[in-house]
Design goal:
There is one protein chain. The protein is mostly helical and 211 residues long. The chain has a single domain, classed as CDP-alcohol phosphotransferase transmembrane (TM) domain (Four Helix Bundle (Hemerythrin (Met), subunit A), Up-down Bundle), CATH 1.20.120. Helix 3 packs antiparallel against helix 6, helix 4 runs antiparallel to helix 5 and helix 6 runs antiparallel to helix 7. It is globular, with a radius of gyration of 20 Å. The two termini are 37 Å apart. 29% of the residues are buried.
Length: 211
């Protein structure tokens, strides 16, 4: 009898969590993963209207990031899948956008590379901790980092659309970035890169006992 009670206690999910997979937050996280390659196809397409669609897809994907965690906490539908895949889906979406900007010649590769290295290191440590049955704490600074990355990517996409639509309807040569806009854009990226590095160091310090 005691063994049965203890077994049931162990199998019970933590308070505020669920062992169901197909929850609304998880569906939103999976949707964000699916929309990421769609965004990449659209951003590199030749047609000008595909750039508008890329902006719309990125916006929808970003909104899923806002709502999945909010709904999970509100409804008590936090899952192990969501805890792990939600931040990973964020990183894939943002990284895809930043890499696209590098390929388009708008952003310095080393700035984006620094952010990618930070994310790879942190994600690898999270996987290592998860395999050991330990949980890691995502700091407020890291959440702000993700938000600023999303805002930055959204702003760059709006800028791209303005340039592309102007070139299409006014029959002028398409130039995505000029000298001034290039330096302003990379200054903004550098600021977010610095925040990413600082948040990564803070993350390691906060979870040093976990690793």
């Amino acid at each position: 009898m005691l063994d049965t009670i203890e077994s049931n206690r162990i199998s019970m999910p933590e308070p505020g969590t669920t062992d169901r997979f197909w929850t609304i937050p998880n569906v939103l996280t999976v949707l964000r993963l699916v929309l990421t390659p769609v965004f990449l196809v659209l951003i590199f397409a030749d047609n000008w209207y595909c750039k508008i669609l890329a902006l719309l897809v990125f916006t929808v994907a970003s909104l899923t990031d806002f709502y999945d965690g909010k709904i999970a906490r509100r409804d008590g539908t936090i899952t192990s899948f969501g805890r792990f895949m939600d931040p990973l889906a964020d990183k894939l979406l943002v990284s895809s956008a930043l890499i696209a900007f590098v390929i388009l010649g708008m952003v310095e590769a080393w700035l984006v590379g620094a952010m990618l290295v930070r994310d790879v290191v942190i994600t690898s440590l999270r996987i290592y901790a998860t395999q050991r049955g330990k949980s890691v704490v995502t700091s407020t600074l890291a959440k702000w980092k993700t938000m600023f990355q999303l805002v930055l990517a959204f702003g760059v996409l709006v800028f791209i659309n303005v340039r592309v639509i102007t070139a299409e309807f006014y029959s002028v040569p398409l130039v995505l970035v000029g000298d001034v806009s290039y330096w302003v854009l990379n200054l903004l990226v550098a600021s977010v890169t610095l925040l990413a590095v600082v948040s990564g160091i803070h993350y390691l310090i906060e979870n040093r006992k976990t690793f």
